User: Which sequence fits this backbone?
């Protein structure tokens, strides 16, 4: 029995090594004094300093963050409102709408990307920040719906009706009774959408205009010329920040309470 | 009251019509017409030319292999995670989502550094006096990149179904005299089919259609169908041909969707 658990732990460790080895590599590279990836040229923190003088990277970071935040926000609003309605729908309509919701999830990103590109060309929309944002909202909405929907199904409709009977308006009843119950789903949908937008390359690649870059598209154009080491230091900063935030959330007394509650 | 609720769907219905349905129709329109706008099947038939057929075949082969490897790696992992008693769904999901906070292109590029002739892995192998691994710029490196990038999409759905299996069902099977192998094949595996289907879709579709992983890890010589389509749109500018090939690609995705619909009747979407 003991040998079995050791084996299991070994297996998990190997998978995690596989998943996190590239991340560790990038972190090491961010301290590499040599400009090329192939050679270790000694320890340095100069890329962390020059990062803040590199306006092109900082602009791409700003675009990426703004698009992620705005697209996650709009997707959460549209998706959550849609969930309220979908849960009240008849079976057939619900099936149709959920089927449409699944299209961007199941379809290839490259097809979603080119289809949106063709749409924007036909409509004559100027490619740039707006087209990226609209595309990101589009592929983010399904993540929100799929994370809010299960919460919606668990709701007891009588509670909402009771609130109405007791004189609450629809909006008041929604925010006082329904919303707190679906909030965990809404939050995880938002977070999921934010992460997906942040990590997206393919759809951005097809819907971006000249001059507007997110971190992904900037990296892609740099691949042939050689990635600027500042990119590694920026990624390390982002990753470590997220790691610390998650650690704090999990360690905070509130987080612990939640766990016990579960 | 119920009318009010129905109206709430309007923003989403309009949004999905404009940004999901109409764009897809446009892919079909471009794919089925030539430059002058006349109907033609030439763009779809173009898949049969040697160059395109080879790219499609290679894509199918590599994505099938990657899907199988992902499944074989993920199933035991998901089972171990379920038995860990961590009882923290969110933590496990988090561990697999966390790498996404480091850019996907950079993570894939890091494999170049790891796999290079004088890279980290070969240094370790050399130190251990083992034969070196020369897979960078070969289809093997592309498979590795696919498995690396899409493994979480296989683990999460599997974990989600396995964790929901009632322990009493397994205990009952054992009480009735089934050994652990029988229990696995007769009880656990059949119950996890929705997760398997959803995992296969989530790995196979992005692997089949990728153009980034082959660009980053396959050198510039290996063309997948994704690379061909991407070039038609961003370099050659032949949108009609690119759309036609995309329609062919979508046929495979639709086959996948139908399979998903058959096995996942509930429409619960175990993906998340």
Assistant:
């Amino acid at each position: 029995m003991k040998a079995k658990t050791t084996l299991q732990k070994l297996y998990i460790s190997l998978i995690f090594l596989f998943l996190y080895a590239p991340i560790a590599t990038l972190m090491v590279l961010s301290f590499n004094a040599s400009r090329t990836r192939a050679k270790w040229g000694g320890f340095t923190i100069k890329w962390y300093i020059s990062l803040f003088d590199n306006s092109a990277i900082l602009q791409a970071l700003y675009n990426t963050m703004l698009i992620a935040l705005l697209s996650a926000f709009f997707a959460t609003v549209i998706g959550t409102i849609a969930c309220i309605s979908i849960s009240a729908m008849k079976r057939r309509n619900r099936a149709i709408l959920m089927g449409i919701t699944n299209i961007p999830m199941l379809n290839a990103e490259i097809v979603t990307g080119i289809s949106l590109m063709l749409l924007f060309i036909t409509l004559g929309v100027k490619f740039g920040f707006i087209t990226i944002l609209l595309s990101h909202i589009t592929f983010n909405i399904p993540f929100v719906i799929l994370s809010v929907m299960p919460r919606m199904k668990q709701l007891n409709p009588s509670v909402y009706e009771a609130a109405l009977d007791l004189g609450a308006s629809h909006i008041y009843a929604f925010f006082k009774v329904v919303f707190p119950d679906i909030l965990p789903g809404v939050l995880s949908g938002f977070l999921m959408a934010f992460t997906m937008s942040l990590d997206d390359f393919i759809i951005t690649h097809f819907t971006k205009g000249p001059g507007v870059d997110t971190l992904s598209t900037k990296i892609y154009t740099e691949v042939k010329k050689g990635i600027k080491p500042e990119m590694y230091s920026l990624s390390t900063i982002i990753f470590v920040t997220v790691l610390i935030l998650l650690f704090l959330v999990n360690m905070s007394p509130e987080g612990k309470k939640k766990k016990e509650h579960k | 009251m119920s009318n009010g609720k129905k109206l709430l769907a309007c923003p989403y219905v309009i949004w999905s019509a404009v940004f999901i349905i109409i764009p897809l129709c446009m892919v079909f329109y471009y794919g089925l017409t030539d430059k002058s706008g006349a109907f033609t099947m030439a763009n779809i038939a173009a898949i049969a030319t040697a160059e395109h057929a080879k790219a499609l075949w290679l894509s199918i082969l590599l994505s099938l292999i990657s899907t199988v490897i992902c499944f074989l790696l993920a199933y035991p992992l998901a089972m171990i995670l379920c038995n860990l008693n961590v009882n923290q769904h969110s933590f496990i999901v988090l561990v697999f989502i966390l790498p996404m906070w480091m850019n996907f292109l950079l993570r894939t590029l890091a494999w170049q550094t790891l796999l290079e002739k004088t890279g980290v892995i070969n240094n370790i192998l050399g130190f251990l006096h083992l034969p070196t691994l020369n897979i960078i710029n070969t289809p093997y490196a592309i498979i590795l990149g696919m498995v690396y990038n899409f493994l979480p999409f296989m683990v999460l759905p599997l974990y989600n179904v396995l964790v929901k299996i009632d322990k009493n069902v397994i205990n009952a099977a054992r009480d009735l005299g089934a050994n652990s192998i029988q229990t696995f094949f007769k009880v656990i595996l059949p119950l996890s089919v929705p997760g398997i289907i959803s995992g296969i879709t989530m790995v196979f579709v992005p692997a089949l259609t990728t153009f980034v992983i082959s660009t980053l890890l396959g050198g510039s010589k290996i063309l997948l169908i994704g690379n061909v389509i991407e070039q038609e749109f961003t370099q050659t500018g032949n949108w009609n041909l690119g759309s036609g090939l995309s329609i062919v690609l979508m046929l495979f995705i639709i086959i996948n969707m139908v399979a998903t619909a058959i096995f996942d009747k509930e429409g619960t979407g175990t993906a998340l």
About this structure: Chain A touches chain B through 85 residues (CB under 8 Å). Confidence is low (pLDDT under 50) at residues 255-262 of chain A. Chain A is about 80% helix and 0% strand.
